[in-house]
Amino acid sequence: MIIGVPKEIKLDEYRVAMLPVGVEELTRRGHKVLIEQGAGLGSGLADHDYLENGCEMVDEAAEIFARADMIVKVKEPMPAEWSLIRPGQIVFTYFHFAADRELTEAILATNCTAVAYETLADDQGRLPLLTPMSEVAGRMSIQEGAKYLERPQMGRGILLGGVPGVAPAWITVLGGGVVGANAAKIAAGFHANVSILDINMDRLRYLDDVMPPNVDVLFSDRHTIRKQLERADLVVGAVLIPGAKAPRLVEREDLKRMQPGSVIIDVAIDQGGCIETSKPTSHSNPTYIVDDVLHYCVTNMPGAVGRTSTYALCNVTLPYVIQIAQQGIDTAAQASKPIARAINMQAGKVTNQAVAETFELPCADLFAKK
Ligand SMILES: NC(=O)C1=CN([C@@H]2O[C@H](COP(=O)(O)OP(=O)(O)OC[C@H]3O[C@@H](n4cnc5c(N)ncnc54)[C@H](O)[C@@H]3O)[C@@H](O)[C@H]2O)C=CC1
Ligand SMILES: CC(=O)C(=O)O
Ligand SMILES: [Mg+2]
């Protein structure tokens, strides 16, 4: 198979979808890997690192899309890439379709096979290709929150950990999955007062066992969330229903309960966000203020720490890239339920139930006779 890795073109995206070891492993198995010149530079990976491992370096993304059987990317295809995708081509990347109707319609129209990292689920419901980036974003949410609580950044002027004689910050984490647990752990390390909320009782019991004493584990309902907002200096949005639009947990009117200068970091923005007033932002222009509350809604948080994130992402994607390259997508999907669950679209049809429901589109059976 020919596997193509274009340079990421989303604003401030410094990750790349393959490490030199990926080139080595794929070429060793007889595949050809095309890497766009400069694709790894944002993550500190030089062209020669890839060339030494047997890739073909290509000048233009258009050539990669024209030649590759499978495109391996990090972020959803940008409009400039949509017309380059070919019918039947496998595109393996984050898509987050539920957040973006225009993207959904554009990718459907390409007739490609869209294999989404974020819905590749194992039999326990875990999301192995989302997890490492959620670990990054969860940890980052607290360092970003700490920064934007500083007064020169328009925050309340609060130090997360306080000092002897002055209380630490209150932090509310909505959703206790991977993002939420990582946020809570780092926030607790700063000595902040942390509450983490979820609706999954088994998850709450687990968090109660593993979290330090300065983390309260609470059931997530509207009443408790609104109470939390009254004292929270920092709110982290970290909920997910896989494939679907994020549930909205905070309405615009609820912002009035928050103190001026408090900060919301809505990590769930890539699935549409869990705060009514959230809208996607970029690392270059990450924040805006609504009703005196600072919002940070960057859709590719891990992109800013490309060196860490590229390694964390590629470590987990490579085995699936190899399996799809070895078997082809149809056989790989028959052999691997996680891969089948990752296929969101094929031949112009949506094959993921949550994406179909979001846009009221029919959901096709992946294994229906073609
Ligand atoms: N902005 C960015 O750069 C990044 C965003 N993300 C996003 O962060 C979000 C969270 O991801 P993960 O933590 O990996 O998901 P996860 O599946 O590990 O955790 C989500 C949690 O939300 C909980 N939940 C669902 N509905 C809820 C409700 N009404 N109230 C409280 N909790 C609720 C679930 O029970 C689950 O424990 C996803 O949308 C993911 O794509 C992840 C990485 C980077
Ligand atoms: C998960 C995601 O959206 C990201 O890593 O950018
Ligand atoms: Mg988008």
UniProtKB/TrEMBL annotation:
Keyword ATP-binding (UniProt): no
Class of this enzyme: oxidoreductase
Enzyme Commission (EC) number: 1.4.1.1
Listed GO biological process terms: L-alanine catabolic process
Active site: H96 (proton donor/acceptor), D270 (proton donor/acceptor)
Catalytic activity reported: L-alanine + NAD(+) + H2O = pyruvate + NH4(+) + NADH + H(+)
UniProt: substrate binding residues: R15, K75
GO MF: alanine dehydrogenase activity; nucleotide binding
Pfam name, any one: AlaDh_PNT_C
Keyword flag NAD: yes
Domain Alanine dehydrogenase/pyridine nucleotide transhydrogenase NAD(H)-binding: 149-297
Residues that bind NAD(+): S134, D198, R203, S220, V239, L240, V267, A268, I269, D270, V298, T299, N300, M301
Domain Alanine dehydrogenase/pyridine nucleotide transhydrogenase N-terminal: from-to ranges: 4-137
Family of the protein in this entry: Belongs to the AlaDH/PNT family.
Protein name: Alanine dehydrogenase
Organism of derivation: Bythopirellula polymerisocia
